[in-house]
Amino acid sequence: MRERAWRAVMLVLAAAAFAYGWRVTRIDLGELATKAHLVRPLVRDLLRPELLERVPRVQEVAVPVSLGGGEPPLPPSRGPQVQVSSRAVRVGQEVVVRGEEFEPGRPGRLVWRDATGAPAPLAEFSTDARGGFQLRVRIPDTLGDRGEVVAVVELAQTVWRPSETLRLVAERMVETVFLALMGTAMGVVFAVPLSFLGARNLAYGPVGLAVYGVSRTVLNVFRSVEPLILATVFAVWVGIGPFAGVLALGVHSVASLGKLYSEAIEAIDPGPIEAVEATGASRLQVVRYAVIPQIVPQFIAFTIYRWDINVRMSTVIGFVGGGGIGFLLMQYINLLLWQKAATAVWAITVVVALMDYLSARVRERVT
Amino acid sequence: MGKPFLEVEHLTKVYPGGVRALEDVSFEVARGEFVVVIGLSGSGKSTLLRCINRLVEPTSGRVWVDGVEITALDREGVRRVRREIGMIFQQFNLVKRLPVVTNVLTGRLGYVPGWWSLVNYWPPGLVQQALDALERVGIRDKAYVRADQLSGGQQQRVGIARALMQEPKLILADEPVASLDPATSHSVLRYVEELNRREGITVLCSLHFLSLARRYGTRVLALKEGRLVFDGHPSEIDGRRFREIYGEDAVEVEIA
């Protein structure tokens, strides 16, 4: 009887707790349906990442000119030709640019490219029926003592090429993978010695036990700090960028690898240790011949697994200034560039899936 | 004659937690004897063997080996004396992921500089010695195979080769054949017997089966609940003695 009453009270309490939870978290399943139109464009854009873009093929001819010097040598060119009336010029001077043997009847533009390669538009034109054009342009205010007059004529043909976004995303993705690699490497360097000190079965005597306690505490404290918080701290310390991410992942990896490693050490077969000890080997030799051979496979497996996790984590770390793909993704999201964001999201998905697969394969092989 | 080769005096071991594994055990062993220690599981056989090379620290009592008081040595002294005491284990205790020859070479670790070990360097002379040791136990062809690829009997022969590598004065064998089938047991024990007869290495070997003790031992020590209850020639163990050692309900099992 008492038990039944007790159970009823518990049920009522549980029901009250969930009812309150439902209210404070403002759960409203209806909103999922009524507000679906808000998310539709976003989902649509996420399904249309910017991967490739179609660009017209172009004919491009660049003519070097100098500012305040002699005429620079003219590289030999075949096909379309461009002549500039003077190739030793000063800023503001008018020159006549003549082109011939371009594709007839196509739109084109003239561009000034300064010494750093930065382009500035000069004029637009169309080629005549014989593929020529003639324009009078003014040399713009520019950096450096040389530059190029570039004629670009667009052809009717188009080609596919990786989009600007895709190239940028790929670059950041590579940065992310290496960021994770460096963070993992940093973790390994410190975790290996810590794990030996923090393994119960290798701790001899009161000094050993004290060292064991300290190492375990250090590992536990570091592990309890979220990598996101670490990244924030390091972004303030060394500035926003991949280095902050490396440090954040590194510190977190020390803690998590250290724990995994020391547990691997604690799980080894004590028999070989006893046997090698019995031959009169020193402590160091026992570790070298009886401990290390037993733990190498697990150490490799854990390390690769950690790298895999760190790639995943570094995308989030990027959001708080840790560099890599996450930082780029955050910028796209803040600018509401959903298609570009989609490119980044898909790239992350592909790379994470690939890392996951590869790390599983490697772990299978070594154990 | 002078002092006996091995002398154990009032040896007592109480494990933390209060288990009394050895209770005032005393005996002497002359050089060249093949002493078999029998007794039920938990009677203190393993503890006795491990107290002799101090893998287990005795609670009280003294042990001398070849004139050296083992129980009085510091850590470095223990390390030095262990170099000359070979040990063979029930579970073979090989480092499974290392090649057989490296396992044998570990028998020599007590003599090589520590930094050699860091880079896994072994002088060619020692490698040859290890191969010779493997030759003696009949598995020279397995030298470069990983230890875990070997059968139980072969692994135990590697264990013997490792002990042999130490050029020991004394071999402690802790149930060396308890994990092996009868035929393999005999072949392994014959190698130990050969070392005892040909090299004059003193052997202290714990065994489960009385029949094996009778076949190989020149002398039998029996332990019961940590006390020495018999010390004599194997043939002296009759039905009454047998029941004393193994308990009233025990029946002797022959192992062919």
Tell me about this structure:
The complex is a heterodimer of chains A (367) and B (256). Chain A has helices at 2-24, 29-34, 36-46, 164-197, 205-224, 227-238, 242-266, 270-278, 283-322, 325-334, 338-366; strands at residues 52-67, 81-84, 88-89, 94-100, 107-114, 119-126, 133-138, 146-162. Chain A is α+β, with helices and mostly antiparallel strands and 367 residues long. Chain A has 3 domains: 2-46; 52-162, S-adenosyl-L-methionine-dependent methyltransferases (Single Sheet), CATH 2.20.130; 165-366, Orthogonal Bundle (MetI-like fold), CATH 1.10.3720. A 5-stranded mixed β-sheet of chain A has the order 3-1-8-5-6, with helices on one face. Chain A is elongated, with a radius of gyration of 33 Å. With 256 residues, chain B is α/β, with parallel strands linked by helices. Chain B is built from 9 helices and 10 strands. In chain B, the strands form 2 sheets. Chain B has a 6-stranded mixed β-sheet, with helices on both faces. In chain B, strands 2-1-4-5 form a 4-stranded antiparallel β-sheet. In chain B, helix 5 (124-136) crosses helix 6. Chain B is globular and about 55 Å long. Chain B starts with 5 loop residues before the first strand and ends in a 10-residue tail after the last helix. The model of chain B has no long low-confidence stretch (mean pLDDT 90).
What is the CATH domain class of the largest domain in chain A?
Mainly Alpha
Could you state the order of secondary-structure elements of chain B as H and E? Answer: EEEHEEHEHHHHEHEHEEH
Euclidean distance between termini CA atoms of chain B: 38 Å
Largest sheet of chain B: 6 strands, mixed
- Overall number of domains of chain A: 3
Class by alpha and beta content of chain A: alpha+beta
Assigned CATH architecture of the largest domain in chain A:
Orthogonal Bundle
Following the backbone from N to C, one meets helices and strands of chain A in this order, namely HHHEEEEEEEEHHHHHHHH
Average pLDDT of chain A? 89
Number of strands of chain B: 10
